[in-house]
Predict the structure.
Amino acid sequence: MADRVHPADSPRPSTSSVSSDSKPPSLSAAAEKPSPAPGTYVIQIPKDQVYRVPPPENAYHFDRYTRRKHRRSRSRCCCCLCWLLALLVILIVLLGIAAAVFYLVVRPKSPNYSIDSIAIRGLNLTASSISAISPNFDVAVRADNPNKKIGIYYLTGSSVRIYFSDEKLSDGVLPDFFQPAKNITVFRSSVRGSGVNLSNKATNAMIDSQNRHAVPFKVEIRAPIKLKIGSVKSWKIRVKVFCDVTVDQLSAAAKIVSKNCDYSVKLW
């Protein structure tokens, strides 16, 4: 007769009690690693996949973007150049209008210069050789200002020089004075020379000219001036006057046989 086995006596499978505090290593490492903040992503790309030039699939878009950028820079440069040219044209037009208004209001005219008389001393030449001479010239210069609204200031720093055959005989200065509008002024200048050594050629030419009663001289005048228009004075302007004067004799009673004067103006 078979023995009965009571359930209580049957062997029970041994169950090992697992503590609720113990967790697998992988789960604990995952729990300890901080999760990234919401909306923040960290992407790690291998170094060999970082391109310094766009990849072929993006080359078209890169080229299109760079062309658009160059077009914008070119358009800006063209716009700036157009504005600059427009401002330059406007400035030229304004200057032209101002010059036209000034001319219509002031009506400027050129002054006229000439030599009224010239007295000569110290040039008693003979056929004998002369080592040195000291000629003196008293020159009367006539200045005609035909302008109705422009006065002329003759300033310090002028010079008067007299030449014969391109050899300087004497030099002097002009007096400082103011010439009002619509005025004719005759001012005298004493032009002196000392110890002038003329060449034999110039001496013989002067004696020959004296015998023919036609001795040519060149008078060169340089004068700094300022124009006065109303109460406004201009900057310093330099006037150069060149006169060819021929006299009949080398004395204080010399008379002018012919004369021709020309002048130039240096504005700056």
